[in-house]
Design a protein that fits this description.
The chain is α/β, with parallel strands linked by helices. Helices cover 30% and strands 26% of the residues.
Length: 268
């Protein structure tokens, strides 16, 4: 377990007009670990990820990467740091093969033509480094791949560019049992290779199977960030649904002072 986080967020606020979505959110992502980011629908998970990846700019708070405070204003800023996101829709092109998808928008060229041998070699080395054995040919069209193979290609695409933090948005949501096991094994392998991994998931079995830490969001606030070994399934569910579980989580709300709004002269 690393002593200091690779990516650390402190006091993150984000509003859209009058609606504040994130309130003083903190998050720490450690190299060599999988941090599961959990929360109910509307808890702010997607907004937080989009702030980290440069799609949204934060209103307040600080982002520290590798011990240095950084400003992330665009997705290119995030990619330059080594932060990559694999979204739930995977952003793959069915009519292109695996190599073409992995280098889409970042193609290698030699003179005025594409450097196909180099791209194919790099794609193969990346998949081999992740111990991926389910892909028969690098020149398979993505349209011919299974759901688990597509997820594998999307993850390999994310780590191809010397990424240091990989954020995975519900990577097993549409997969069967066998394919889920393959993807979770790949997620674990990313962390074992020294990357900081953020896994967004509603599946508690997946979370407990692969994560080292769990960060639970509740209504735009970080309820708790704990080591997975220190909590139970039921505690995490309570953090997700109520923001508290016993002494763990957000402090209890203080009831507002009673305000009498009965109109003057109304004796009801």
């Amino acid at each position: 377990m690393a002593a200091s986080p690779l990516l650390e967020l402190r006091g993150i606020d984000k509003s859209f007009g009058p609606v504040q979505v994130l309130h003083d959110v903190g998050l720490s992502v450690y190299p060599g670990e999988v941090t599961a980011l959990v929360g109910d629908n509307g808890a702010g998970k997607s907004t937080l990820v989009k702030c980290v990846s440069g799609i949204y700019t934060i209103d307040a708070g600080t982002v520290t990467f590798d011990g240095k405070q950084v400003a992330i204003h665009t997705p290119r800023d995030a990619s330059t740091l080594g932060i990559e996101v694999v979204y739930q829709d995977l952003a793959l092109c069915d009519n292109l093969d695996i190599v073409q998808n992995m280098f889409l928008g970042r193609e290698k060229v030699k003179g005025i033509v594409l450097d196909e041998p180099t791209m194919e070699q790099m794609a193969g080395d990346t998949l081999a480094g992740l111990s991926v054995r389910t892909v028969k040919s690098l020149r398979q069209l993505v349209a011919s791949l299974s759901g688990g193979q597509r997820q594998t290609v999307a993850i390999a695409k994310a780590v191809l560019w010397n990424s240091r933090v990989v954020i995975l948005d519900e990577p097993t949501a549409a997969l069967g049992v066998a394919q889920t096991a393959q993807v979770l094994e790949l997620v674990r392998r990313l962390a074992d290779n020294g990357l900081g991994v953020v896994l967004i998931s509603h599946n508690m079995n997946d979370v407990f199977a692969v994560s080292d830490r769990i960060a639970a969001l509740y209504l735009g606030r970080m309820a708790a960030q704990v080591k997975t070994a220190d909590v139970t399934h039921s505690q995490v569910v309570e953090l997700i649904t109520a923001g508290r579980s016993g002494n763990l989580g957000l402090p209890p709300e203080t009831p507002n002072d009673f305000v009498d709004i009965t109109p003057a002269g109304d004796e009801r």
